[in-house]
Amino acid sequence: MLTFTLRRLLLALPTLLFISLIIFLLVDLAPGSPMSEIPLTVPPEVRKKMIEALGADQPVFVRYILWLRQFFWVEPANLIDGWFGLNLAGDEQRILSWQSRSPVFTVIGQRIPQTLTVIGTAYLLGIAIAMPIGIYSAYRQYSVFDQLGTLVAMIGFSVPTFFSGTLFIIVFAVWLHWFPTKYDTTLMVTDWPSFVLQIKQMAMPVMVLALANAAAISRYMRSSMLENMGQDYVRTARAKGMTERVVVLKHVLRNSLIPVVTVIALGIPSIFGGAIITENLFGVNGIGAALIGAIHANDLPMVQTLAFIFAVLIVVFNLIADVLYGLLDPRIRYE
Amino acid sequence: MSEQFTAIPKAQSQFGAVWRQFRVHRGAVFGLIVLGLLAGFVIFGPLFWPEVKLKVVEALKVKNQGPSLRFPFGTDQLGRDMMVRMMAAGKVSLAVGFVAMIIAIFVGTGIGILAGYFKRLDGPLMRLTDLFLSLPLIPLLLVMVMLFRDKIASILGPELGAFLLIVYAIGITSWMQAARIVRGEVLALKEREYVLAAKSIGVPARRVILRHILPNIISAVMVAATLGVAEAIITESVLSFLGLGFPPDFPTWGRLLFDGLQYIQLYPERVIWPGLAISLTVLSVNYIGDGLRDALDPRIRGR
């Protein structure tokens, strides 16, 4: 298992390097890059200095290596310095946002808690909704409940979150006035009323994301349960005189959870991607909103870094899913 | 008196068999009807409901109207008929879905066949597929549109430029599933006797692929293609929804929804129509894909 994990880790490195190269080149070689947008009124010698100061006169290859060095050495070193008060990084140049002139990672660090609160709650809630639905639909296959669950899941797949979100806004915010339309990031939870406010403003984005995720996960749960229901060990358990409750919730459920857990792990990066929409719709000031803001402001370092962080998330959670699968299922042997 | 005889059932065509199974799937039939209605609405609608050019003064008078006999879907903030706009937008949305799907299926099938048939290419091509699968698609698409939109628009014009850019961007980032499915199918088919027979009489690889393998993977490709249309329509509307898709005078349903968002408090119907259209299209396409998968699977079809 350990060798497998190590081997997968080693394989993940070239993947990440390749993705970073794609992201770097895409942004760097694009015609719309701001290097070409220095006004013509700027005198040539000043223009030259500006380009030099940004390091844009170096060959592409050198710039790529420098960017990688900033990303993988300078930024982590700064993080560790921040934690332990060391001075590993020295005064190396950090990745600076062109919008705010502050280090990109400081901005991201400020934004991530917002994303995690909303997205994390939504994902957990989605799983909590999906599990019982999936289990019961499989237990009563082709019942009215199962048919209804299939229909709702199909609708949940098909209605994009930006539409379900706008519907929620129209119904719950515009007509019923239950929840605010926009998420207030500056709200501090200090006492009971502010806590209630926080719950209220989180309700809509969390519900939208949770329902979208629950639709997918409940289907996986159902098919995985169905696969196990017909197995011999289930019949044995029943023959031993165990109650239905124990048979379903202990024997079948445990075995059915194995593939579902990996699906849940695999889904985590994609919900960060999907959260871009929800964050923009509800005005949650997280990393998805930061990405859109940076794109509209032509803030290339920010865009590169965020896109690469999304890629890292995907690669890491793929790895986690593979390792989890091997750990949970003793039949799987990666040798 | 009565003579008992067993009639040999009339041989039915492949298409007939598939169609019979397809009709059993209630969701798929529903999907086909809804998609047909929507397609009819956007393609033939403009023939019966031509755009009426209004003068600026007239347009100002009729702006922001609710549904009426003259404007069944109301008018927008510039006095444009929402019904006309919905038809025009739907045409673009569906076109984006289909063209992007065709590109994705073309690339995916090509890579899948090469990887499945030629052992030497399998490793590198599947690695490439894995790499593409770990790309963060939405952020990447957004960056591509942001960086290349103006340049391409200046060469091809804003409408064609936006269309081609988005269609190609979606196409080349969504071929991976098709490639994986096709590779799996080809790997299994390659070992079958009839392929062996073809090879043994010296049929070149190109002919084996075109004559013997391709016809047998069509069903898997068709299912992937159907689901690909839904995926592409959603992706395009996400881009438009984030303001990085089509220009406002060449709208898609996603763009109409984005434009309607500013007026959501006063005129929520302007968001609901395009959103409903997208959702219905995707829902029916997904159901059709479901039904096709059942109908094209000979193991299920017999029952």
* Order of helix and strand elements from N to C terminus of chain A: HHHHHHHHHHH
The class by helix and strand makeup of chain B works out as mainly alpha
**Shape field of chain B:** globular
Q: Based on Cα principal axes, name the global outline of chain A.
A: globular
Radius of gyration of chain B: 24 Å
Helix content of chain B: over 70%
Q: Ends of chain B: how far apart?
A: 34 Å
Mean pLDDT of chain A: 82
What is the oligomer described by this structure? heterodimer
Distance between the termini of chain A: 8 Å
- Poorly predicted spans of chain A: none
Key terms for this structure?
heterodimer, A: 335 residues, mainly alpha, B: 303 residues, 13 helices
Description:
The complex is a heterodimer of chains A (335) and B (303). Chain A has 335 residues and is mainly alpha-helical. Chain A is built from 11 helices and no strands. In chain A, helix 5 packs across helix 7, helix 7 (192-229) packs across helix 9 and helix 10 (287-296) packs antiparallel against helix 11. The longest helix of chain A has 39 residues, at 244-282. Chain A starts with a helix and ends in a 7-residue tail after the last helix. Chain B is an all-alpha fold and 303 residues long. Chain B has 13 helices and no strands. Chain B has helices at 14-24, 26-48, 56-61, 82-117, 119-133, 137-156, 158-171, 176-190, 193-200, 205-241, 253-261, 269-296, 298-301. In chain B, helix 6 (137-156) runs antiparallel to helix 7 (158-171) and helix 8 packs antiparallel against helix 10 (205-241). Chain A binds chain B through residues 15, 18-19, 22-23, 26-27, 30-33, 154-155, 157-160, 162-163, 166-167, 169-170, 174, 269, 273-274, 276-277, 280, 291-292, 295-296, 298, 303, 306-307, 310-311, 313-315, 318, and chain B through 27, 130-131, 134-140, 142-144, 146-151, 230, 234, 237-238, 241-244, 254, 257, 261, 264-265, 268, 271-272, 275-276, 278-279, 282-283, 286-287.
